[in-house]
């Protein structure tokens, strides 16, 4: 057997095993369970599973899709996730050979798993866990730091500065769409429930400041507003008519030749907003985990049943889940900003087409944007370089 073929086969088998673990993540992460303990068990009868019950795909087929101990049905999703992971890892090993891309190949496999797990959880719960996305951004930065440029490779994976830029622009692009669309949903009214000490007001302020000051100074202005809130011990409102309206006016001025030019101004705005949104996401994650632990302690003390602080808090209507913002950052950090744009375009087109199909069938489209974004990332991973080059050729670049 050819060595390259052998590596691809090994990658596919490894993917089947990772797919089995992915099913554990899909089940346990939304429920706040430990992903390592207790060992794998049937969710219906709670019986511990033996090694023979855990062979990817084969165990499900041999058991007829039912638990060996209680005969409860096992979802078809389990073998599907395992098969998709095996197929995905094999394709990645074939397109991005380990001998050429080194650590970068493993990074792309990690990205594929993150996308698949996030999509499955989003389809089940309409959420994307921070336990996937925020550590995913950190992992992408690590792979970019340790990965070397592949000499003679058809596609260079992002180095560390490019990975940082991809993460910021990914988060910034999605959060800007969310900010603008949510403003329209509120009919251009101010938010009634701004977050303390950091939230969309600080993101919008960074969006405006980044247009004129660049990404890092723009992010600094947004975080300075956080400091003002903390010092005042309350939300010091920054009117959205000033921040969002000012951003739109700034973009029009940039297109007319003022400032640093339209492209640099938009890049600065998106990156600044992306930086503040990731800081906000990290803060909200830590705060939510603390609230969840407090609720668990109350439940153990036989306190009255209560929802989490996040569920109880009043909120303004939002056009997009914040999990999508962080998932875009994951895609940007692993693939770079050019392939990120390909992923977003494919996601928008796929979402629109599926929406048309749902409308024709007169059924409600309840699928979140995360699975479309993941699909776009896979398309960008496989065909992104060719699509980017074709687009450059159309522009004569």
User: Averaged pLDDT, please?
Assistant: 89
| Helix proportion range | 55-70%
The ordered H/E elements are HHHHHHHHHHHHHHH
Instruction: Determine the strand fraction and express it as a percent band.
Output: under 5%
Radius of gyration: 23 Å
Report how far the terminal alpha carbons are from each other: 43 Å
**Total discrete domains:** 3
Question: Major β-sheet, in short?
Answer: none
Shape field = globular
| Class by SSE composition | mainly alpha
User: Total helix count?
Assistant: 15
The poorly predicted ranges are 299-308
How would you characterize the overall build of this protein?
Keywords: Cell membrane, Hydrolase, Membrane, Transmembrane, Transmembrane helix. It is a multi-pass membrane protein. By secondary structure, this protein is mainly alpha-helical. It folds into 3 domains: 1-95, no CATH class; 107-186 and 320-397; 187-312, no CATH class. Helix 1 (3-28) packs antiparallel against helix 3 (77-95) and helix 6 (130-146) packs parallel to helix 13. It is globular and about 65 Å long. The protein has helices spanning 3-28, 58-62, 77-95, 98-101, 103-125, 130-146, 160-185, 200-213, 215-232, 240-255, 262-300, 309-312, 322-335, 337-360, 369-395. It starts with a helix and ends with a helix. The longest helix is centred in the last third of the chain and has 39 residues, at 262-300.
